[in-house]
């Protein structure tokens, strides 16, 4: 009877959308993901103690004595716009003080498929900054967009200024590759609020 | 003559073995990890905040147990996201900010005693560097304890501290991967302990066994 129940029990299933993957001419496969801000930001009910909450509870900043790190949480969409997973972006500096560009890590978790763990050197310092006693993320400020509406954030460490996919799990476990992160501003709203999208373009191939 | 050949063979074999030990060709293979320094770090998970399904056996079975409202998106109904501060246990040290993403595994099977969630952590120490952790959380022992608790009239629940990391079998899949800064070259494995019904103390502990990757 127990065996029968275990066999019949309807365990949770993960909703899967068909993957939009392009096979590249010179080898490898390209898959693009997208995040729309602010609507894809994932808010949490509270901030941990010692941590500042920004962007309506969807980004968190831990300040050290000479440096700070931020964590942003998002819904992840495929190129067709379907919400397929969750993503986190952590940004900071790997050495004390604010010297030059920041570095960022992405975790893309697609429950029905697996995860990609990705790391990059940023093209500028896009880590959290204090303004008027409050932490803000540069891309949320109007001034960040004075010089243009499209920024490629990834600047390395892989060749071509691309970021590195350090590990895949699930159906990504046998893959290695690179990626780019690009921010596109779509609208400047009242009170300096912004709307736009983050494009994550991955190129992977089978691990040798 | 026979003795000379034997002695020459012994000397040649000894020399070849010693040379192999000195050079150790496996060290030159791409991706091979050379242990230069090993260390163990214990981090307490404090002040965590969550959204999505709860980290319980009931949630893994599909009972709608959620924290922070859960997710309405069909692809996220069985997923969870957490943010926490990690502090070193028993020693002074800077705290880290951590994000954990987890989701019910698609290949769970009660007939095979498999009830797990896939989990990915990102840990970042300000001004120091960052790590990824990737592995699975095993809820099967928690399910057994919850069933026993229910059978003895104490409700479908678990108490105390539990090792979420599989005790055997999949334990090798619990990977630590250096991501940036001074921690970029770290590799190793990890274990996670989850504290149930903790009133004030930490909600869990992470134990990292790390070494420097060549």
Core attributes:
heterodimer, A: 208 residues, mainly beta, 8-stranded antiparallel beta barrel, two-stranded antiparallel sheet, 1 helix, 3% helix, 50% strand, globular, B: 214 residues, alpha+beta, 8-stranded antiparallel barrel, 3 helices, 10 strands, 18% helix, extended
Question: What's a concise summary of this model?
Answer:
The complex is a heterodimer of chains A (about 210) and B (about 210). By secondary structure, chain A is mostly beta strands.
User: How would a crystallographer describe the biggest sheet of chain A?
Assistant: 8 strands, antiparallel, barrel
The total count of strands of chain A amounts to 15
SS elements, strand count of chain B: 10
Which term fits the overall shape of chain A? globular
Task: Specify the overall morphology of chain B.
Answer: extended
Tell me the series of helices and strands of chain A, N- to C-terminal.
HEEEEEEEEEEEEEEE
Oligomer: heterodimer
The residue fraction in helices of chain A comes out at under 10%
- Determine the strand fraction of chain A and express it as a percent band: over 45%
Beginning-to-end CA distance, first to last residue of chain A: 47 Å
**Helix and strand run of chain B:** HEHEEEEEHEEEE
Mean pLDDT over all positions of chain A: 89
Query: Helices and strands of chain A: which structural class?
Result: mainly beta
Number of helices of chain A: 1
Most residues in contact: chain pair: A-B, 63 and 57 residues
- Uncertain parts of chain A: none
Strand content of chain B: 35-45%
C-alpha-based Rg of chain B, rounded: 23 Å
Q: Strands of the biggest beta sheet of chain B: in what spatial order? A: 1-3-4-5-6-8-9-10
| Whole-number mean pLDDT of chain B | 81
């Amino acid at each position: 009877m127990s065996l029968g129940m275990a066999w019949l029990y309807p365990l949770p299933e993960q909703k899967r959308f068909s993957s939009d993957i392009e096979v590249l001419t010179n080898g490898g496969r390209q898959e693009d993901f997208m995040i729309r801000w602010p609507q894809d930001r994932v808010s949490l009910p509270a901030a941990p103690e010692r941590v500042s909450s920004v962007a309506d509870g969807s980004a968190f900043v831990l300040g050290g004595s000479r440096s700070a790190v931020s964590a942003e949480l998002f819904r992840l969409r495929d190129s067709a716009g379907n919400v397929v997973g969750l993503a986190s972006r952590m940004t900071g500096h790997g050495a004390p003080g604010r010297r030059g560009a920041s570095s960022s890590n992405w975790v893309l978790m697609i429950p029905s498929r697996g995860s990609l763990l990705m790391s990059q050197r940023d093209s500028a310092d896009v880590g959290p900054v204090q303004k008027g006693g409050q932490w803000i993320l540069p891309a949320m400020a109007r001034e960040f967009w004075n010089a243009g509406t499209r920024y490629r954030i990834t600047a390395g460490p892989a060749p071509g200024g691309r970021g590195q996919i350090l590990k895949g799990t699930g159906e990504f476990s046998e893959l290695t590759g690179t990626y780019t992160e690009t921010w596109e501003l779509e609208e400047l709203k009242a009170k300096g609020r912004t709307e736009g999208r983050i494009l994550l373009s991955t190129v992977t191939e089978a691990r040798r | 003559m026979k003795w000379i050949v034997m002695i020459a063979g012994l000397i040649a074999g000894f020399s070849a073995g010693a040379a192999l030990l000195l050079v150790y060709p496996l060290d030159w293979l791409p991706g091979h990890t050379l242990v230069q320094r090993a260390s163990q770090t214990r981090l307490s998970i404090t002040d965590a905040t969550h959204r999505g399904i709860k980290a319980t056996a009931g949630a893994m079975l599909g009972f709608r147990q959620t924290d922070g409202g859960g997710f309405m998106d069909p692809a996220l109904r069985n997923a969870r996201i957490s943010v926490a501060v990690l502090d070193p246990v028993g020693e002074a040290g800077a705290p880290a900010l951590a994000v954990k993403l987890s989701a019910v595994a698609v290949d769970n099977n009660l007939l095979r005693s498999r009830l797990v969630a896939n989990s990915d952590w990102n840990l970042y120490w300000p001004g120091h560097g960052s790590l990824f952790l990737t592995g699975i959380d095993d809820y099967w022992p928690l399910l057994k304890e919850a069933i026993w608790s229910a059978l003895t009239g104490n409700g479908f629940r678990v108490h105390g501290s539990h090792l979420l990391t599989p005790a055997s079998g999949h334990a090798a899949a619990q990977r630590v991967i250096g991501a940036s800064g001074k921690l970029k070259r770290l590799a190793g494995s990890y274990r996670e302990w989850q504290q149930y019904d903790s009133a004030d103390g930490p909600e869990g502990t992470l134990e990292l066994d790390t070494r420097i990757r060549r």
